[in-house]
Design brief:
heterodimer; A: alpha/beta; Rossmann fold; six-stranded mixed β-sheet; 24% strand; B: two-stranded antiparallel sheet; binds adenosine-5'-triphosphate; binds magnesium ion
Amino acid sequence: MQPIIDAKDLVHEYSQRDEEGNVTGINRALDGVSLQVEEGDFIAVLGANGSGKSTFAKHLNALLTPTEGTLYVGGMECGDHTKDLDIRKTVGMVFQNPDNQIISNVVEEDVGFGPENIGVPTAEIWQRMEDALKNVGMYAYRKNSPNKLSGGQKQRVAIAGILAMKPKCIILDESTAMLDPGGRKAVIDTISRINREEKITVIVITHYMEEVTGADHVYVMDSGKVVMEGSPREIFARSHELEEHRLAVPEAVKVAMLLRDQGIPLPEDILDQEELVDAVENLWIQR
Amino acid sequence: MIRDITIGQYYQGESLIHKLDPRLKVVGVLVYLISLFCFRYVIGFLVAGLFFVLVLKLSKVPFRYVIKGLKPILFLLVFTAALNLLWTPGETIWRFGILNLTKEGIYKCIFMALRLILLIIGSSLLTLTTTPNQLTDAMEYLLGPFKRFGAPVHEVAMMMSIALRFIPILLEETDKIMKAQMSRGADFESGNLMHRLRNMIPLLVPLFVSATRRANELAYAMDARCYNGGAGRTKMKPLKYHSRDYKGYGVLVVYLVLLIVVTRTVAI
Ligand SMILES: Nc1ncnc2c1ncn2[C@@H]1O[C@H](COP(=O)(O)OP(=O)(O)OP(=O)(O)O)[C@@H](O)[C@H]1O
Ligand SMILES: [Mg+2]
Protein backbone atom coordinates (compact mmCIF):
# COMPACT_ATOMS: atom_id res chain seq x y z
CA MET A 1 0.00 0.00 0.00
CA GLN A 2 1.09 3.53 -0.70
CA PRO A 3 2.23 5.36 2.44
CA ILE A 4 0.09 8.35 3.43
CA ILE A 5 3.19 10.41 4.06
CA ASP A 6 6.37 9.94 2.11
CA ALA A 7 9.22 12.39 2.67
CA LYS A 8 12.54 12.06 0.92
CA ASP A 9 15.61 14.16 1.81
CA LEU A 10 13.36 17.02 2.87
CA VAL A 11 15.23 20.29 3.44
CA HIS A 12 13.79 23.57 4.63
CA GLU A 13 15.74 26.77 5.00
CA TYR A 14 14.44 29.93 6.65
CA SER A 15 16.30 32.91 5.28
CA GLN A 16 16.71 36.15 7.19
CA ARG A 17 16.63 39.27 5.07
CA ASP A 18 17.64 42.85 5.73
CA GLU A 19 15.54 45.88 4.78
CA GLU A 20 16.55 45.75 1.13
CA GLY A 21 15.57 42.11 0.86
CA ASN A 22 19.11 40.73 0.67
CA VAL A 23 19.58 37.40 2.37
CA THR A 24 21.68 37.92 5.48
CA GLY A 25 21.49 34.50 7.02
CA ILE A 26 20.17 31.05 6.35
CA ASN A 27 18.76 28.76 8.99
CA ARG A 28 18.52 25.15 7.92
CA ALA A 29 15.56 23.99 10.05
CA LEU A 30 15.11 20.67 8.21
CA ASP A 31 18.20 18.91 6.96
CA GLY A 32 17.46 15.86 4.88
CA VAL A 33 14.47 14.26 6.61
CA SER A 34 13.29 11.00 5.09
CA LEU A 35 10.42 9.07 6.57
CA GLN A 36 7.30 7.18 5.62
CA VAL A 37 4.04 6.85 7.51
CA GLU A 38 1.58 4.07 6.71
CA GLU A 39 -2.13 4.72 6.90
CA GLY A 40 -3.63 3.95 10.31
CA ASP A 41 -0.35 4.26 12.22
CA PHE A 42 0.16 6.12 15.48
CA ILE A 43 3.42 7.98 15.07
CA ALA A 44 5.29 10.10 17.61
CA VAL A 45 7.94 12.67 16.78
CA LEU A 46 10.19 13.64 19.67
CA GLY A 47 12.67 16.46 19.80
CA ALA A 48 13.99 19.27 21.97
CA ASN A 49 13.17 22.95 21.34
CA GLY A 50 14.21 24.16 17.92
CA SER A 51 14.87 20.70 16.50
CA GLY A 52 12.58 21.36 13.54
CA LYS A 53 9.44 19.47 14.56
CA SER A 54 6.98 22.27 13.83
CA THR A 55 8.69 23.08 10.56
CA PHE A 56 8.25 19.46 9.51
CA ALA A 57 4.61 19.40 10.62
CA LYS A 58 3.82 22.55 8.65
CA HIS A 59 5.15 20.89 5.50
CA LEU A 60 2.72 17.99 5.92
CA ASN A 61 -0.10 20.53 5.86
CA ALA A 62 1.25 22.49 2.89
CA LEU A 63 1.71 25.54 5.12
CA LEU A 64 5.40 25.62 4.15
CA THR A 65 7.06 24.51 0.93
CA PRO A 66 10.18 22.33 0.84
CA THR A 67 13.41 24.04 -0.15
CA GLU A 68 14.82 20.74 -1.41
CA GLY A 69 13.65 17.15 -1.49
CA THR A 70 10.23 15.70 -2.18
CA LEU A 71 7.16 15.18 -0.06
CA TYR A 72 4.04 13.26 -0.97
CA VAL A 73 0.93 13.46 1.19
CA GLY A 74 -1.84 11.02 0.29
CA GLY A 75 -0.16 10.57 -3.07
CA MET A 76 -0.17 14.30 -3.82
CA GLU A 77 3.08 16.15 -4.20
CA CYS A 78 3.60 19.20 -2.00
CA GLY A 79 5.48 22.04 -3.55
CA ASP A 80 3.42 23.52 -6.31
CA HIS A 81 0.46 25.13 -4.63
CA THR A 82 -2.20 23.61 -6.84
CA LYS A 83 -3.04 20.80 -4.43
CA ASP A 84 -2.89 22.77 -1.17
CA LEU A 85 -6.59 22.51 -0.35
CA ASP A 86 -6.72 18.77 -1.10
CA ILE A 87 -3.65 18.19 1.05
CA ARG A 88 -5.22 20.13 3.91
CA LYS A 89 -8.36 18.07 3.55
CA THR A 90 -6.27 14.91 3.88
CA VAL A 91 -4.12 16.03 6.81
CA GLY A 92 -5.60 18.09 9.65
CA MET A 93 -3.46 19.93 12.15
CA VAL A 94 -4.03 20.82 15.80
CA PHE A 95 -1.71 23.53 17.09
CA GLN A 96 -0.15 24.29 20.45
CA ASN A 97 -2.10 27.27 21.74
CA PRO A 98 -5.81 26.46 22.06
CA ASP A 99 -6.82 30.13 22.07
CA ASN A 100 -5.16 30.93 18.77
CA GLN A 101 -6.89 28.30 16.68
CA ILE A 102 -10.52 28.66 17.72
CA ILE A 103 -12.18 31.07 15.34
CA SER A 104 -15.77 31.31 16.48
CA ASN A 105 -17.52 32.52 19.63
CA VAL A 106 -19.63 29.37 19.90
CA VAL A 107 -18.23 25.84 20.14
CA GLU A 108 -20.56 24.31 17.53
CA GLU A 109 -19.87 27.07 15.03
CA ASP A 110 -16.16 26.60 15.42
CA VAL A 111 -16.46 22.90 14.64
CA GLY A 112 -18.50 23.87 11.59
CA PHE A 113 -15.84 26.28 10.31
CA GLY A 114 -13.72 23.68 8.45
CA PRO A 115 -16.67 21.93 6.77
CA GLU A 116 -18.05 25.35 5.73
CA ASN A 117 -14.73 26.13 4.07
CA ILE A 118 -14.69 22.95 2.02
CA GLY A 119 -18.29 23.44 0.90
CA VAL A 120 -20.12 20.72 2.83
CA PRO A 121 -23.94 21.12 2.57
CA THR A 122 -25.65 22.67 5.61
CA ALA A 123 -27.48 19.56 6.87
CA GLU A 124 -24.30 17.50 6.70
CA ILE A 125 -22.31 20.15 8.57
CA TRP A 126 -24.71 19.74 11.50
CA GLN A 127 -24.40 15.97 11.38
CA ARG A 128 -20.60 16.14 11.26
CA MET A 129 -20.54 18.70 14.09
CA GLU A 130 -22.67 16.43 16.26
CA ASP A 131 -20.56 13.33 15.51
CA ALA A 132 -17.27 15.11 16.02
CA LEU A 133 -18.24 16.77 19.31
CA LYS A 134 -19.67 13.51 20.65
CA ASN A 135 -16.48 11.74 19.63
CA VAL A 136 -14.33 14.03 21.79
CA GLY A 137 -16.94 14.18 24.59
CA MET A 138 -17.71 17.88 24.21
CA TYR A 139 -21.25 17.69 22.81
CA ALA A 140 -22.78 19.02 26.01
CA TYR A 141 -20.78 22.23 25.58
CA ARG A 142 -21.80 22.91 21.98
CA LYS A 143 -23.64 26.15 22.81
CA ASN A 144 -20.89 27.50 25.09
CA SER A 145 -18.35 30.17 24.42
CA PRO A 146 -14.83 28.73 24.01
CA ASN A 147 -13.57 31.41 26.41
CA LYS A 148 -15.28 29.61 29.28
CA LEU A 149 -13.67 26.20 28.64
CA SER A 150 -10.50 24.77 30.19
CA GLY A 151 -7.39 24.33 28.03
CA GLY A 152 -7.92 20.60 27.62
CA GLN A 153 -11.54 21.14 26.64
CA LYS A 154 -10.53 23.76 24.08
CA GLN A 155 -8.01 21.38 22.52
CA ARG A 156 -10.69 18.68 22.29
CA VAL A 157 -12.93 21.20 20.52
CA ALA A 158 -10.03 21.95 18.15
CA ILE A 159 -9.67 18.19 17.49
CA ALA A 160 -13.42 18.00 16.80
CA GLY A 161 -13.02 20.89 14.36
CA ILE A 162 -10.46 18.81 12.45
CA LEU A 163 -12.46 15.56 12.72
CA ALA A 164 -15.47 17.28 11.17
CA MET A 165 -13.41 17.72 8.01
CA LYS A 166 -12.95 13.93 7.86
CA PRO A 167 -9.18 13.87 7.29
CA LYS A 168 -7.17 10.68 6.86
CA CYS A 169 -4.47 11.92 9.19
CA ILE A 170 -4.33 14.24 12.21
CA ILE A 171 -1.17 15.97 13.41
CA LEU A 172 -0.91 17.32 16.95
CA ASP A 173 1.92 19.83 17.14
CA GLU A 174 2.66 20.01 20.87
CA SER A 175 -1.06 20.33 21.45
CA THR A 176 -0.70 19.27 25.06
CA ALA A 177 2.19 21.54 25.98
CA MET A 178 0.01 24.21 27.58
CA LEU A 179 -2.28 21.84 29.47
CA ASP A 180 -2.30 20.53 33.03
CA PRO A 181 -1.71 16.76 33.49
CA GLY A 182 -5.46 16.02 33.57
CA GLY A 183 -6.13 17.92 30.36
CA ARG A 184 -3.09 16.32 28.73
CA LYS A 185 -4.30 12.83 29.52
CA ALA A 186 -7.81 13.58 28.23
CA VAL A 187 -6.42 14.82 24.92
CA ILE A 188 -4.01 11.90 24.46
CA ASP A 189 -6.70 9.35 25.40
CA THR A 190 -9.11 10.95 22.94
CA ILE A 191 -6.62 10.94 20.11
CA SER A 192 -5.46 7.36 20.64
CA ARG A 193 -9.07 6.18 20.71
CA ILE A 194 -9.74 8.01 17.45
CA ASN A 195 -6.69 6.31 15.96
CA ARG A 196 -7.92 2.88 17.05
CA GLU A 197 -11.62 3.23 16.26
CA GLU A 198 -11.69 5.47 13.20
CA LYS A 199 -8.41 4.17 11.74
CA ILE A 200 -7.21 7.74 11.32
CA THR A 201 -3.45 8.11 11.10
CA VAL A 202 -2.13 10.14 14.04
CA ILE A 203 1.16 12.00 14.31
CA VAL A 204 1.89 13.34 17.78
CA ILE A 205 4.68 15.88 18.08
CA THR A 206 5.89 16.37 21.61
CA HIS A 207 8.76 16.59 23.99
CA TYR A 208 6.97 14.71 26.75
CA MET A 209 8.26 11.13 26.58
CA GLU A 210 5.25 9.82 28.51
CA GLU A 211 3.05 10.63 25.55
CA VAL A 212 4.88 8.39 23.12
CA THR A 213 4.53 5.13 25.07
CA GLY A 214 1.39 4.20 23.11
CA ALA A 215 2.85 4.94 19.67
CA ASP A 216 3.55 2.33 17.00
CA HIS A 217 6.70 4.06 15.91
CA VAL A 218 8.81 6.90 17.31
CA TYR A 219 11.10 9.31 15.47
CA VAL A 220 13.57 11.50 17.34
CA MET A 221 14.68 14.73 15.71
CA ASP A 222 17.64 16.96 16.48
CA SER A 223 18.97 19.93 14.50
CA GLY A 224 16.66 19.23 11.59
CA LYS A 225 17.60 15.57 11.21
CA VAL A 226 15.93 12.32 12.20
CA VAL A 227 18.52 10.91 14.59
CA MET A 228 16.75 7.87 16.08
CA GLU A 229 13.75 5.74 15.19
CA GLY A 230 12.08 2.63 16.47
CA SER A 231 9.35 1.36 18.77
CA PRO A 232 8.94 3.22 22.08
CA ARG A 233 10.70 0.40 23.90
CA GLU A 234 13.66 0.44 21.57
CA ILE A 235 13.94 4.20 21.85
CA PHE A 236 13.71 4.28 25.64
CA ALA A 237 16.28 1.54 25.91
CA ARG A 238 18.77 3.98 24.36
CA SER A 239 18.34 6.50 27.16
CA HIS A 240 21.93 7.77 27.12
CA GLU A 241 21.57 8.64 23.47
CA LEU A 242 18.26 10.40 24.17
CA GLU A 243 19.90 12.60 26.76
CA GLU A 244 22.53 13.59 24.22
CA HIS A 245 19.65 14.91 22.14
CA ARG A 246 18.45 16.98 25.11
CA LEU A 247 15.42 14.84 25.84
CA ALA A 248 14.38 14.02 29.40
CA VAL A 249 13.81 10.35 29.94
CA PRO A 250 10.76 9.42 32.10
CA GLU A 251 11.59 8.99 35.80
CA ALA A 252 10.92 5.25 35.91
CA VAL A 253 13.16 4.63 32.90
CA LYS A 254 15.87 6.79 34.43
CA VAL A 255 15.75 4.94 37.76
CA ALA A 256 15.98 1.61 35.94
CA MET A 257 18.94 2.92 33.99
CA LEU A 258 20.78 4.07 37.13
CA LEU A 259 20.12 0.73 38.80
CA ARG A 260 21.50 -1.10 35.78
CA ASP A 261 24.59 1.10 35.90
CA GLN A 262 25.05 -0.08 39.50
CA GLY A 263 25.09 -3.67 38.25
CA ILE A 264 21.51 -4.62 39.13
CA PRO A 265 20.24 -6.90 36.32
CA LEU A 266 17.00 -5.11 35.31
CA PRO A 267 15.56 -5.60 31.82
CA GLU A 268 16.35 -2.84 29.27
CA ASP A 269 12.82 -2.09 28.13
CA ILE A 270 11.07 -0.70 31.24
CA LEU A 271 8.65 2.09 30.24
CA ASP A 272 6.73 3.19 33.31
CA GLN A 273 6.51 3.01 37.06
CA GLU A 274 4.37 -0.15 37.15
CA GLU A 275 6.78 -2.13 35.02
CA LEU A 276 9.67 -0.95 37.16
CA VAL A 277 7.95 -2.06 40.36
CA ASP A 278 7.18 -5.45 38.80
CA ALA A 279 10.74 -5.93 37.64
CA VAL A 280 12.18 -5.04 41.04
CA GLU A 281 9.71 -7.41 42.74
CA ASN A 282 10.76 -10.22 40.38
CA LEU A 283 14.40 -9.68 41.25
CA TRP A 284 13.53 -9.77 44.93
CA ILE A 285 11.69 -13.05 44.57
CA GLN A 286 14.55 -14.59 42.58
CA ARG A 287 16.99 -13.79 45.39
CA MET B 1 -11.00 46.71 36.45
CA ILE B 2 -10.38 46.51 32.75
CA ARG B 3 -12.55 43.43 32.49
CA ASP B 4 -15.66 45.48 33.23
CA ILE B 5 -15.60 46.69 29.64
CA THR B 6 -18.32 44.91 27.75
CA ILE B 7 -18.85 45.34 24.07
CA GLY B 8 -21.87 44.07 22.22
CA GLN B 9 -23.11 42.29 25.32
CA TYR B 10 -25.58 39.52 24.59
CA TYR B 11 -28.44 38.57 26.92
CA GLN B 12 -29.12 34.85 26.49
CA GLY B 13 -32.77 34.15 25.83
CA GLU B 14 -35.32 32.26 23.78
CA SER B 15 -37.85 35.04 23.26
CA LEU B 16 -39.59 35.95 20.04
CA ILE B 17 -37.24 38.91 19.56
CA HIS B 18 -34.20 36.67 20.06
CA LYS B 19 -35.48 34.31 17.39
CA LEU B 20 -36.20 36.98 14.78
CA ASP B 21 -33.93 37.08 11.75
CA PRO B 22 -30.94 39.34 12.47
CA ARG B 23 -31.44 41.15 9.14
CA LEU B 24 -34.91 42.22 10.27
CA LYS B 25 -33.49 43.42 13.58
CA VAL B 26 -30.70 45.43 11.98
CA VAL B 27 -33.07 47.02 9.47
CA GLY B 28 -35.62 47.59 12.25
CA VAL B 29 -33.14 49.40 14.46
CA LEU B 30 -31.92 51.58 11.59
CA VAL B 31 -35.47 52.52 10.69
CA TYR B 32 -36.26 53.19 14.34
CA LEU B 33 -33.22 55.41 14.82
CA ILE B 34 -34.03 57.43 11.72
CA SER B 35 -37.69 57.70 12.72
CA LEU B 36 -36.63 59.42 15.95
CA PHE B 37 -35.47 62.41 13.93
CA CYS B 38 -38.53 62.69 11.73
CA PHE B 39 -41.07 64.42 13.95
CA ARG B 40 -41.36 67.83 15.58
CA TYR B 41 -43.96 67.22 18.28
CA VAL B 42 -43.53 65.62 21.70
CA ILE B 43 -46.39 63.25 21.00
CA GLY B 44 -44.03 61.38 18.63
CA PHE B 45 -42.04 60.23 21.65
CA LEU B 46 -45.15 58.62 23.05
CA VAL B 47 -45.47 56.47 19.93
CA ALA B 48 -41.73 55.72 19.72
CA GLY B 49 -41.57 55.04 23.46
CA LEU B 50 -44.56 52.69 23.39
CA PHE B 51 -43.05 50.82 20.45
CA PHE B 52 -39.82 50.40 22.40
CA VAL B 53 -41.68 49.15 25.50
CA LEU B 54 -43.58 46.65 23.35
CA VAL B 55 -40.38 45.21 21.86
CA LEU B 56 -38.68 45.22 25.26
CA LYS B 57 -41.54 43.26 26.84
CA LEU B 58 -41.48 40.74 23.98
CA SER B 59 -37.71 40.31 24.33
CA LYS B 60 -37.96 39.52 28.07
CA VAL B 61 -34.70 41.41 28.63
CA PRO B 62 -34.79 43.03 32.11
CA PHE B 63 -35.05 46.82 31.89
CA ARG B 64 -31.93 47.34 34.02
CA TYR B 65 -29.78 45.65 31.35
CA VAL B 66 -30.98 48.16 28.80
CA ILE B 67 -30.39 51.05 31.20
CA LYS B 68 -26.78 49.91 31.71
CA GLY B 69 -26.06 51.02 28.18
CA LEU B 70 -26.83 54.61 29.23
CA LYS B 71 -24.21 54.77 31.96
CA PRO B 72 -21.21 55.59 29.78
CA ILE B 73 -23.03 58.51 28.14
CA LEU B 74 -24.74 59.81 31.27
CA PHE B 75 -22.31 62.69 31.57
CA LEU B 76 -22.70 63.66 27.93
CA LEU B 77 -26.46 63.47 28.32
CA VAL B 78 -26.64 65.73 31.37
CA PHE B 79 -24.11 68.14 29.92
CA THR B 80 -25.84 68.67 26.58
CA ALA B 81 -29.24 68.80 28.24
CA ALA B 82 -28.07 71.57 30.58
CA LEU B 83 -26.43 73.41 27.72
CA ASN B 84 -29.62 73.33 25.67
CA LEU B 85 -31.73 74.19 28.65
CA LEU B 86 -29.84 77.28 29.75
CA TRP B 87 -28.40 78.80 26.58
CA THR B 88 -31.15 78.55 23.98
CA PRO B 89 -32.31 82.02 22.94
CA GLY B 90 -36.03 82.70 22.96
CA GLU B 91 -38.90 83.62 25.28
CA THR B 92 -37.29 84.06 28.71
CA ILE B 93 -38.90 82.39 31.72
CA TRP B 94 -36.14 82.78 34.28
CA ARG B 95 -32.83 84.53 34.18
CA PHE B 96 -29.68 84.48 36.37
CA GLY B 97 -26.55 86.16 35.05
CA ILE B 98 -25.67 84.56 31.75
CA LEU B 99 -28.05 81.64 32.42
CA ASN B 100 -31.20 82.11 30.44
CA LEU B 101 -34.02 79.61 30.81
CA THR B 102 -36.38 79.88 27.85
CA LYS B 103 -39.48 78.07 26.65
CA GLU B 104 -37.62 76.98 23.52
CA GLY B 105 -34.75 75.77 25.71
CA ILE B 106 -37.01 73.48 27.73
CA TYR B 107 -38.44 72.10 24.51
CA LYS B 108 -35.07 71.51 22.94
CA CYS B 109 -33.67 69.94 26.10
CA ILE B 110 -36.51 67.44 26.37
CA PHE B 111 -36.25 66.57 22.68
CA MET B 112 -32.55 66.13 22.76
CA ALA B 113 -32.52 64.02 25.91
CA LEU B 114 -35.38 61.76 24.85
CA ARG B 115 -33.91 61.24 21.39
CA LEU B 116 -30.51 60.35 22.76
CA ILE B 117 -31.96 57.98 25.34
CA LEU B 118 -34.18 56.14 22.86
CA LEU B 119 -31.29 56.00 20.41
CA ILE B 120 -28.99 54.31 22.90
CA ILE B 121 -31.46 51.92 24.49
CA GLY B 122 -32.94 51.09 21.07
CA SER B 123 -29.63 49.99 19.67
CA SER B 124 -28.53 48.22 22.82
CA LEU B 125 -31.68 46.13 22.57
CA LEU B 126 -30.32 44.93 19.22
CA THR B 127 -26.99 43.76 20.63
CA LEU B 128 -28.68 42.31 23.72
CA THR B 129 -30.90 40.03 21.64
CA THR B 130 -28.55 39.17 18.77
CA THR B 131 -25.31 37.17 18.99
CA PRO B 132 -22.21 38.78 17.46
CA ASN B 133 -22.12 36.10 14.78
CA GLN B 134 -25.71 36.71 13.77
CA LEU B 135 -24.94 40.41 13.62
CA THR B 136 -21.97 39.97 11.31
CA ASP B 137 -23.93 37.49 9.16
CA ALA B 138 -26.70 40.04 8.79
CA MET B 139 -24.24 42.79 7.91
CA GLU B 140 -22.55 40.56 5.35
CA TYR B 141 -25.93 39.91 3.77
CA LEU B 142 -27.19 43.49 3.87
CA LEU B 143 -23.92 44.85 2.46
CA GLY B 144 -23.88 42.04 -0.12
CA PRO B 145 -24.77 44.31 -3.07
CA PHE B 146 -21.49 46.19 -2.57
CA LYS B 147 -19.55 43.01 -3.40
CA ARG B 148 -20.30 43.69 -7.03
CA PHE B 149 -18.20 46.84 -6.80
CA GLY B 150 -15.34 44.82 -5.34
CA ALA B 151 -15.92 45.74 -1.70
CA PRO B 152 -14.42 43.05 0.60
CA VAL B 153 -17.70 42.47 2.42
CA HIS B 154 -17.04 38.86 3.45
CA GLU B 155 -13.56 39.71 4.66
CA VAL B 156 -14.76 42.64 6.74
CA ALA B 157 -17.48 40.52 8.34
CA MET B 158 -14.93 37.78 9.09
CA MET B 159 -12.56 40.33 10.62
CA MET B 160 -15.33 41.69 12.80
CA SER B 161 -16.32 38.31 14.14
CA ILE B 162 -12.68 37.38 14.85
CA ALA B 163 -12.17 40.73 16.57
CA LEU B 164 -15.20 40.02 18.76
CA ARG B 165 -13.76 36.65 19.70
CA PHE B 166 -10.36 38.09 20.62
CA ILE B 167 -11.53 41.15 22.58
CA PRO B 168 -12.02 39.20 25.82
CA ILE B 169 -8.75 37.31 25.32
CA LEU B 170 -6.75 40.48 24.77
CA LEU B 171 -8.48 42.27 27.65
CA GLU B 172 -7.55 39.44 29.96
CA GLU B 173 -3.99 39.58 28.68
CA THR B 174 -3.83 43.35 29.23
CA ASP B 175 -4.99 42.79 32.77
CA LYS B 176 -2.32 40.14 33.30
CA ILE B 177 0.49 42.28 31.86
CA MET B 178 -0.66 45.28 33.88
CA LYS B 179 -0.54 43.29 37.10
CA ALA B 180 2.82 41.81 36.19
CA GLN B 181 4.29 45.24 35.46
CA MET B 182 2.69 46.77 38.56
CA SER B 183 4.26 44.07 40.70
CA ARG B 184 7.61 45.21 39.28
CA GLY B 185 6.87 48.76 40.31
CA ALA B 186 5.25 50.15 37.18
CA ASP B 187 2.75 52.92 37.87
CA PHE B 188 -0.17 53.48 35.53
CA GLU B 189 -2.20 55.85 37.66
CA SER B 190 -0.21 58.88 38.80
CA GLY B 191 1.77 61.69 37.23
CA ASN B 192 0.85 64.10 34.48
CA LEU B 193 -0.39 63.11 31.05
CA MET B 194 3.04 62.80 29.38
CA HIS B 195 4.31 60.81 32.31
CA ARG B 196 1.37 58.45 32.19
CA LEU B 197 1.66 57.95 28.46
CA ARG B 198 5.30 57.06 28.85
CA ASN B 199 4.39 54.59 31.58
CA MET B 200 2.06 52.84 29.16
CA ILE B 201 4.98 51.67 27.01
CA PRO B 202 5.82 48.61 29.16
CA LEU B 203 2.16 47.67 28.83
CA LEU B 204 1.71 48.30 25.12
CA VAL B 205 4.89 46.72 23.80
CA PRO B 206 4.29 43.21 25.19
CA LEU B 207 0.62 43.46 24.30
CA PHE B 208 1.44 44.37 20.72
CA VAL B 209 4.02 41.60 20.40
CA SER B 210 1.61 39.03 21.75
CA ALA B 211 -1.24 40.19 19.51
CA THR B 212 0.99 39.91 16.45
CA ARG B 213 2.05 36.41 17.45
CA ARG B 214 -1.55 35.40 17.97
CA ALA B 215 -2.56 36.79 14.60
CA ASN B 216 0.22 34.85 12.91
CA GLU B 217 -0.79 31.58 14.56
CA LEU B 218 -4.45 32.18 13.85
CA ALA B 219 -3.67 32.72 10.16
CA TYR B 220 -1.88 29.35 10.07
CA ALA B 221 -4.79 27.67 11.85
CA MET B 222 -7.30 29.14 9.40
CA ASP B 223 -5.18 28.06 6.45
CA ALA B 224 -4.88 24.58 7.89
CA ARG B 225 -8.66 24.38 8.03
CA CYS B 226 -8.95 25.17 4.35
CA TYR B 227 -10.14 28.76 4.76
CA ASN B 228 -9.90 30.34 1.36
CA GLY B 229 -12.07 33.44 1.45
CA GLY B 230 -15.80 33.62 0.90
CA ALA B 231 -15.98 31.86 -2.48
CA GLY B 232 -17.24 28.27 -2.48
CA ARG B 233 -18.09 28.43 1.18
CA THR B 234 -21.28 26.89 2.55
CA LYS B 235 -23.04 28.09 5.68
CA MET B 236 -23.73 26.11 8.81
CA LYS B 237 -26.42 28.55 9.84
CA PRO B 238 -27.77 30.13 6.66
CA LEU B 239 -30.05 33.11 7.20
CA LYS B 240 -33.61 32.16 6.40
CA TYR B 241 -36.75 34.26 6.76
CA HIS B 242 -39.68 32.66 8.57
CA SER B 243 -43.27 33.86 8.59
CA ARG B 244 -42.63 35.63 11.91
CA ASP B 245 -40.01 37.76 10.18
CA TYR B 246 -42.43 38.91 7.48
CA LYS B 247 -44.88 39.78 10.25
CA GLY B 248 -42.05 41.69 11.91
CA TYR B 249 -41.52 43.79 8.80
CA GLY B 250 -45.29 44.39 8.81
CA VAL B 251 -45.17 45.62 12.41
CA LEU B 252 -42.34 47.97 11.48
CA VAL B 253 -44.42 49.50 8.69
CA VAL B 254 -47.42 49.84 11.02
CA TYR B 255 -45.20 51.68 13.51
CA LEU B 256 -44.01 54.11 10.85
CA VAL B 257 -47.52 54.81 9.58
CA LEU B 258 -48.81 55.30 13.11
CA LEU B 259 -45.95 57.67 13.90
CA ILE B 260 -46.64 59.77 10.81
CA VAL B 261 -50.40 59.87 11.33
CA VAL B 262 -50.18 60.75 15.02
CA THR B 263 -47.55 63.45 14.67
CA ARG B 264 -49.44 65.01 11.76
CA THR B 265 -52.84 65.10 13.49
CA VAL B 266 -52.04 65.72 17.15
CA ALA B 267 -49.85 68.81 17.23
CA ILE B 268 -48.53 68.80 20.80
N1 LIG C 1 9.44 31.67 10.84
C1 LIG C 1 10.72 31.39 11.09
N2 LIG C 1 11.72 32.16 10.59
C2 LIG C 1 13.00 31.86 10.82
N3 LIG C 1 13.42 30.81 11.54
C3 LIG C 1 12.49 30.00 12.06
C4 LIG C 1 11.10 30.24 11.86
N4 LIG C 1 10.40 29.26 12.51
C5 LIG C 1 11.31 28.46 13.08
N5 LIG C 1 12.57 28.89 12.81
C6 LIG C 1 13.82 28.23 13.23
O1 LIG C 1 13.83 26.92 12.75
C7 LIG C 1 14.33 26.02 13.71
C8 LIG C 1 13.32 24.92 13.96
O2 LIG C 1 12.15 25.48 14.53
P1 LIG C 1 10.84 24.67 14.83
O3 LIG C 1 9.81 25.64 15.25
O4 LIG C 1 10.55 23.79 13.69
O5 LIG C 1 11.31 23.80 16.08
P2 LIG C 1 10.45 22.90 17.06
O6 LIG C 1 11.13 21.59 17.10
O7 LIG C 1 9.04 22.92 16.69
O8 LIG C 1 10.70 23.61 18.44
P3 LIG C 1 9.67 23.86 19.65
O9 LIG C 1 9.78 22.70 20.56
O10 LIG C 1 10.22 25.10 20.27
O11 LIG C 1 8.32 24.05 19.08
C9 LIG C 1 14.67 26.83 14.93
O12 LIG C 1 16.06 27.07 14.92
C10 LIG C 1 13.89 28.11 14.74
O13 LIG C 1 14.60 29.18 15.29
MG1 LIG D 1 7.18 23.63 17.63
